Amino acid sequence: MRKYFGTDGVRGKVGQFPITPDFALRLGYAAGKVLAAHGSKPAVIIGKDTRLSGYLFESALEAGFAYAGVDVYMAGPIPTPAIAYLTKTLRLSAGVVISASHNPYYDNGIKFFSANGNKLPDDIELEIEAAIDEEMIVAKTLGKVRRLNDACGRYIEFCKSTFPSHLDLKNLKIVLDCAHGATYYVAPHVFEELGAEVIRLACEPNGVNINNGCGSTHPEFLLDAVKQNSADYGIAFDGDGDRVVIIDKNGRIFNGDELIYIIAKAYEAIGNKLPGIVGTVMTNMGMEVALKSQSYQFVRSKVGDRYVVEELLKNNWLLGGEASGHILCLDKHTTGDGIISALQVLAAIVLLKQDAADVIDWQEYPQVMINVKLLDKTYDWQSKARTKIAEVEALLSNHGRVVVRASGTEPLVRVMVEAKELSQAQSLAELIADSIRG
Length: 438
Known about the structure:
The chain has helices spanning 21-38, 54-67, 80-89, 122-132, 151-161, 186-193, 219-228, 256-269, 285-293, 305-315, 338-352, 356-359, 381-396, 422-437, and strands spanning 10-13, 43-48, 71-77, 94-98, 107-114, 145-147, 173-177, 197-201, 233-237, 244-248, 253-254, 276-280, 297-301, 319-321, 327-329, 367-373, 400-406, 412-419. The chain is of the alpha/beta class.
């Protein structure tokens, strides 16, 4: 059982345990001791998004690692996937990101990447958790700390390298909504250097405006800007840059499912049709039906990019992701990357000579999501809802789906019902939500 780590590191409200400086200090020390036990002279890199509390936790983690004898590289504000890349290319023991992704500025979190740029294995996370409660003993040789001044430049070049060298973006006008987050500097440079005309939106972080009415969770902000600037496409990232949403000139919003499908069609067009694609339990059934009708295999994982990666590696596949905009292109990067995913979609549009909307040749099944707030974390909602969930699943049979799961970061139960008719999905979702509320 995990004590501190959730599905994507440690996360919570700043000032409330475990998102406190003393815990961050102990976490850095514990991670350093575990890394030292698994290899000689470990070194790590620490990056962060733009929220004000990042300075606080950056210093605490740095001190913890150094006390454990681990050398530290400081990257400053930079997208989460950049840390995965830099950890691997610099041959470091681990990468650390201080971010709460798409959450408001008053939240924060700490997550780790392994030496190969993937999420830390479960057994290593459990070792770190066990070491947090141990006495802190100063290392015989303290770790050194240095700033990696060219971190953003290295990552910009890496992102550009994933775009086909024979293509460019010279005929596209793009609005970039960087959510006042970690992509605010890197993303505009990437797209401009590939030839696009870029209009910058939400690229002025002040420490508290991250994700505030902007970014991938608020596409309406980008929608207005695309129309006002007569742009071809709008691209919105979340606060740490690992997810993406794209909007076309007609105001159509493309979620992660549709973007994955567009990328897959580009592989097919160049004669490299993918054998299979990984989605999650939240992937729209309409895409699953479309893929299977075209002889693609399709597998669902649990929600969370770490689980998508596990399924991709197990099947030796390259492409997968979530409707939320976390997309994995394992021939480009080891982790979900909003900038790189957007580049693959734009490359597909240029290659196929089609607008994004014309590539999508399937209809979504209506999905209804209801978040049921739990006042008591010990509340046994499974027992309350089990019978009603079974009844709804039997009613839908093979013409819809039910997904009921607890949030990994909030005291919520998420109820999702998918059916061919919106009215049916809505009424059935409400039945299940009511059963949870009791």
